[in-house]
């Protein structure tokens, strides 16, 4: 029983990271109808910022995550302002090419600064454990779950009860109506990038503390977070969280039952199944028309 409980917690912890990344995809898609595939490399940048804070400044998990969130929020603002904004109004292909270019730029910048080898967070940063009866759980994975819950709740509060958050929702619902109401569309888009990139930075610290930090580390979790956002219902914040947690659980259970080789496969099998049977995802009954 203890082994299965540990697998479930591990799956939920990894799923929480997928959920945090998927929230960033969802925010940007809501206002631009664009999948920002450079988002996973913003996560990678956050992992390196967290590693620098832990290795050089000896900061703990939460201070490192806050630092990574701040730096990645600024990075997201720069990416939106100088990468995407000049192409607003263009068709989807130029924006996709820009996303690919930004992704490669971030990867090779990380290689130039830190080398191509993997880095490991200091021992003690992830070494703590929590014992619940006969079950031993890594403290970092419980932290990932708590962060996911807290940040999702915080994001919902920002979007529902602040003026800037309501502007983001208005632009996501109807750009024309938002303009007529005096809402500055570009500011709402910038805020979506800032919030999404901050979440990516935090997820990078959590994921890096559980595994390794490398210039290409964002590729696999980024693709899985994309799958999670589609499974949950693209454009839906609760859907992104549900999709991420469901994907993490499915991976953990498949790995325990059929071996670790099936963990990566199950994510994309589920993605294909949802696209064929329920393209709107868990939270949307029709095709992906959800809103932030």
From TrEMBL:
A GO CC term assigned to this protein in UniProt: plasma membrane
Q: What is its main location?
A: membrane
Q: Which terms in the Gene Ontology molecular function aspect does this entry carry?
A: L-isoleucine transmembrane transporter activity; L-leucine transmembrane transporter activity; L-phenylalanine transmembrane transporter activity; L-valine transmembrane transporter activity
Q: What is the lineage of its organism?
A: Bacteria, Bacillati, Bacillota, Clostridia, Eubacteriales
Alphabetical keyword list:
Amino-acid transport, Cell inner membrane, Cell membrane, Membrane, Transmembrane, Transmembrane helix, Transport
Task: Give the subcellular location.
Answer: Cell membrane
Q: Which Pfam families match?
A: BPD_transp_2 (PF02653)
Q: What is the protein name stated in its UniProt record?
A: Branched-chain amino acid transport system permease protein
Specify the protein's topology with respect to the membrane.
Multi-pass membrane protein
Similarity comment: family membership: Belongs to the binding-protein-dependent transport system permease family. LivHM subfamily.
Entry's Gene Ontology BP terms: D-alanine transmembrane transport; L-alanine transport; L-isoleucine import across plasma membrane
Q: Which residues cross the membrane?
A: 12-36, 57-78, 98-121, 188-213, 225-247, 253-277
tRNA-binding as a keyword? no
Q: Which InterPro entries match?
A: ABC_transp_permease (IPR001851), BCAA_transport_permease (IPR052157)
Is-annotated flag, keyword Calcium? no
């Amino acid at each position: 029983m203890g082994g299965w409980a540990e697998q479930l917690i591990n799956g939920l912890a990894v799923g929480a990271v997928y959920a945090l990344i998927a929230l960033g995809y969802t925010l940007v898609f809501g206002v631009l109808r664009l999948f920002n595939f450079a988002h996973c490399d913003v996560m990678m940048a956050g992992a390196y910022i967290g590693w620098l804070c832990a290795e050089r400044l000896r900061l703990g998990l939460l201070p490192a995550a806050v630092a990574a969130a701040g730096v990645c929020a600024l990075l997201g603002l720069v990416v939106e302002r100088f990468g995407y904004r000049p192409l607003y109004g263009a068709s989807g292909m130029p924006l996709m090419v820009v996303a690919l270019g930004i992704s490669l730029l971030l990867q090779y910048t990380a290689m130039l600064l830190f080398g191509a080898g993997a880095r490991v967070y200091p021992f003690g940063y992830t070494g703590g454990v929590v014992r619940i009866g006969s079950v031993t759980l890594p403290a970092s994975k419980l932290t990932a779950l708590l962060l996911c819950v807290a940040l999702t709740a915080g994001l919902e509060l920002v979007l529902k009860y602040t003026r800037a958050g309501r502007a983001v929702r208005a632009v996501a619902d109807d750009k024309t109506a938002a303009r007529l109401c005096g809402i500055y569309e570009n500011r709402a888009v910038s805020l979506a990038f800032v919030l999404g990139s901050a979440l990516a930075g935090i997820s990078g610290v959590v994921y890096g503390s559980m595994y390794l930090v490398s210039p290409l580390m964002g590729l696999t979790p980024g693709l899985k977070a994309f799958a999670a956002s589609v499974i949950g219902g693209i454009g839906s914040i609760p859907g992104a969280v549900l999709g991420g947690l469901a994907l993490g659980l499915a991976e953990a259970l498949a790995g325990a039952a059929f071996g670790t080789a099936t963990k990566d496969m199950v994510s994309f099998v589920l993605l294909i199944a949802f696209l064929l049977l329920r393209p709107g995802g868990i939270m949307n009954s029709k095709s992906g028309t959800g809103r932030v």
